[in-house]
Amino acid sequence: MKPYHKFLAVALACLFMKPMDSTAQETKAKFNHPSLENQQSWTMILLPDIQNYVKFKRNQPILDVMMNWIVENEEKMNIKMVMCTGDLVEHDDIVNPDPKKMDQTGKQQWEATAKAFEKLDGKIPYVTATGNHDYNIFSYTHKPKTTHFPQYFPADKNSKNQRLLREVTANVYGNPSLENASYEWKSPHGKDFLFLSLEFAPRDTILRWANQVVNQEKYANHSVLLLTHAYLNFKNEHIETAKYDLQDANYGTAVFNKLVKPSKNIEMVFSGHIGSPNDVKKHLGFRIDKNAAGKNVSQMTFNAQALGGGTYGSGGDGWIRILEFLPDGKTVRVRTFSPFFALSSNTQNMAWRTEDYDEFTMTLN
């Protein structure tokens, strides 16, 4: 190419090239660098149901990306707690999976889940609910809802958890288990929190135990954050019932009426469970109700299990929620982010969901 032709080609390219305006630059920076609104804030990460990551070996690296992002950003984002909405596996005890539906046995799924959370062990405390898929109830018989969860998530798995652990109660085996447990923690701003996790469709005896826990005098001034699996549907309604052949099972409506509403200090409820292939809104729920003390209770369902190709797709495209607790002790900023999409410059423009149902503010009392 002759020199002047080369110069002309470069000049024309510059002429027609769209410059990156300041907004685009800021957007790109946001994709690359999640940050706190206030450097004095602390953060809680909410993980959705993860069963579709671990049931296929091909999807397990996406869960690793999510966990690695949490560890890598612990200091920058001041991450103090991780919560997971349950369904840690697709099938608790399957030994001969249909490879079209899952290529990992129940044992392999539990091992993959425990290994993923191992990245947080000794670094960041985490609380996980147990979901319907974590139990043996898919036989649709009158079996008790037994699970391998205690085997893979014993109380001493994470030293950070063990320091915060306060109350546990017996599971269906009659053994103390983190299926139903509470954890006490004081925020950097001096606010006392109690994280309470309940089994899928908690039994009446579990709800009585939970009431006793939150009503203890020593927790009277704590903000209680409740985690359970099946609570809200995508219409923002409390779930009344489910198809599983279980006796003594309480879903969202019963949990609200028997535990949340009568309480004076439960201020937030987190859950998962729901979803529909490639429909973001059918993975989400949110509502605010009053408890017995007249305090607002913010109730959030967050899931992503059928995004990224449906039930047999990617497992959820790596979506997590970042909850930033601001130093005023009341404001909680909610954002929805995918460390998976954020990995590549080709997908960073998809790493944040910014609709009003994915990016909003909650208020503690």
From TrEMBL:
<keyword id="KW-0732">Signal</keyword>
<dbReference type="Pfam" id="PF00149">
    <property type="entry name" value="Metallophos"/>
</dbReference>
<feature type="domain" description="Calcineurin-like phosphoesterase">
    <location>
        <begin position="68"/>
        <end position="274"/>
    </location>
</feature>
<dbReference type="InterPro" id="IPR004843">
    <property type="entry name" value="Calcineurin-like_PHP"/>
</dbReference>
<feature type="signal peptide">
    <location>
        <begin position="1"/>
        <end position="24"/>
    </location>
</feature>
<protein>
    <submittedName>
        <fullName>Metallophosphoesterase</fullName>
    </submittedName>
</protein>
<dbReference type="InterPro" id="IPR051918">
    <property type="entry name" value="STPP_CPPED1"/>
</dbReference>
<dbReference type="InterPro" id="IPR029052">
    <property type="entry name" value="Metallo-depent_PP-like"/>
</dbReference>
